[in-house]
Amino acid sequence: MKIEVTDRIIIFTYHILFFLVPLILTPWNFELFEFNKMMLTYFLTVIIASLWLIKMITVKQIIFNKTPFDLLLLLFLISQITSTLLSWDRHVSVFGYYSRFNGGLLSTFSYLILFYAFVSNFQKSQILKLLRTAVISAIFVTVYGILEHFGIDRHIWVQDVQNRVFSTLGQPNWLAAFLAVLIPVTTSLSLIKTPGKEKFLYTVAVYMYFITLIYTKSRSGFLGLMGGLGIFWLLYFLKFKKETVKPFLVQAALLFAIVFLFGAPFRIIEKYTLPQLLNSSNSASVSRSVKPVDLSIIDVGITESGEIRNIVWKGAINIFKNYPVFGTGTESFALAYFKYRPVEHNMTSEWDFLYNKAHNEYLNYAATTGMFGLGSYLLIIGVFIFYFLKQFKNISFKSSPPAKFVVSIGLFSAWLTVLITNFFGFSVVITQLYFFLIPAVVYLYMQDYAVLPGSPEKYLKRAIVVNFRQNMHLSILLVIVCLTGLFLVIRLIFFWVSDFYFAKGHSQSKSQEFASAYKNIKTAVFLNPNESFYLDELAFPAAQIGLYLYSENKASDSAVFIKEALFYNEKALNISPKNVNYWKTKTRILYNLSQIDQNYLPEAIKALEVAKKLSPTDPKIRYNLALMYDTSGQSKKAYFELDDTVKLKVNYRDAWLAKGIFHARDGNYEKAIEALEFILTRINPNDDEARKQLEELQNKI
């Protein structure tokens, strides 16, 4: 294959990457957004890497452009590999937490390959076209987001998508982080000399992005953008004072006007916006009609996201304190947080949610990869900032600002927005791509004096004549590269198809269509046999089918499915022994089986006791353990667990009700009344079941 052809295909593939990754989603997968974006990134990485290798074989040279960041990127990669080898769950560390995917070791390899393939093959003359592709893609994202605000797809989502849009990104904060990156870049493109239509496109795009960002109501995105734009205009002013005032004032005026017309995610600003001023009189009349809240009632309501974030951060710090050097393993936060989850999380509205990220990228690295991982990550950030500012300081211009330098300022400022939004959240596929690829673009733009390895003439001049035997060896290498690339593409297709079947089966299992669920999830396991999540999810419908067959007096068929259920759950636990949810699944299966054979009950209790050790502050585990202890005749242990349950979560209504029922049954009437009255006076005065139990007890005594 000619070098010019490989170069063109590599460049075109990067265009596909920047255009499609923000847009791609499907309705057929378990996770509609991130899974497809990650799979597409892997697919395009395989294509780019294969072409890069083919190009090297063709010219008989190693094509690898060195950068100032090489040692740091290598150190970061070593930190991720080390944490993976020492991980609580190597499977999760390699592939990423299922439903998130970004952040696993494979994704890190992918981003680094894309970085080096870019600096080693991409041509500077093509960068503006690539950025234009990114801008156009974001316009499509934005148009959908604006239409979403007006209800185009409100019937599809459970979330109130009109209130907080997420477009094709899947979550309002992710969309906001993406737009925060694009606005400084697009602003810089609007300032350089381009054709009139293109300049108009960039100018309009900036304000479309900003309106959509407001519709996300993301405070982190808003802060990220303000920080990025502030740095952009400061740096632009330092180099191009005369050219700064007019565009800055125009943009500032328009952004303030948009905030006034459409609102802002901060109350201190929002109260001065037009929507709030128009609604202020209605709000006043409503507030006068609200009855005062009974402060004796324990009602957490909807907990403010900042409060929850602080609790999760505390948990991440607890993990880091216990695993300070290498962490608990790349992307293992979901498993580790169960172990070190602060008790105060139980008094929030999201007390039973699963947190698979620290909601702070830096604390996430600290918890999962320790000082080694976080330190190398921060070094990459620090060195790139130092590199850019050094280049910025040393370069001066006598005439009008060159386009590539203005765009470099925009890219650097956009990159800083990722650092800010990551402080209040975590990276996803598209923001991680920008985190790694923006430095690559800036590096190329800053290296006017460098000879790019992508120059075809360079390789042709240095090509040497080889004999037939050497040519045969090169042909063998080409075949190996092509077959390896084809194999990886096929594996990715298998991953995607397996997720398709798993998503169908998972949905059917939740709807108690266990026969269909079993069939589809088993197909997913066939296509991807080492995914522990699939194995665990397959176990439960298999057990339910076994129980059904037993009830139909088909004992031999029932035994086959029961054995299969236990086998798949055990296999999942062998892959991920510290996954609390898999131990819960084992408990559910064994407890259900105990309905036909009491010998399963002690094993169910043992499984839940393991879950309790892995998640000591989870009140649900304590509550269910209490119920099983009581069923097995261990009433003292049952009372002990119920007491611990309400210590962990004082407003746990079901635990107080169980205390009331158990005490009433055992003749401890005073304690039973105390428990039931606690529900009615402190949790819910309108709890009919508690009131009925209390009345029956009072009549009895």
Give a description of the structure.
This protein is mainly α. The chain has a domain at 496-700: Tetratricopeptide repeat domain (Serine Threonine Protein Phosphatase 5, Tetratricopeptide repeat). The chain is 73% helix and 0% strand.
Q: How would you sum up the major sheet?
A: none
Tell me the Rg in angstroms.
29 Å
CATH topology of the domain at 496-700: Serine Threonine Protein Phosphatase 5, Tetratricopeptide repeat
The helix content, as a percent range, equals: over 70%
- Ends apart, CA distance between termini: 92 Å
Which CATH top level class of the domain at 496-700 fits?
A: Mainly Alpha
Looking at the structure, what is the overall shape?
globular
How many distinct helices? 29
CATH architecture of the domain at 496-700: Alpha Horseshoe
Question: Could you list the spans in which at least 5 consecutive residues all have pLDDT below 50?
Answer: 283-293, 449-468
Provide the residue-averaged pLDDT: 91
Q: Give the full name of the CATH homologous superfamily of the domain at 496-700.
A: Tetratricopeptide repeat domain
Count of beta strands: 0
Structural class: mainly alpha
User: What is the H/E order?
Assistant: HHHHHHHHHHHHHHHHHHHHHHHHHHHHH
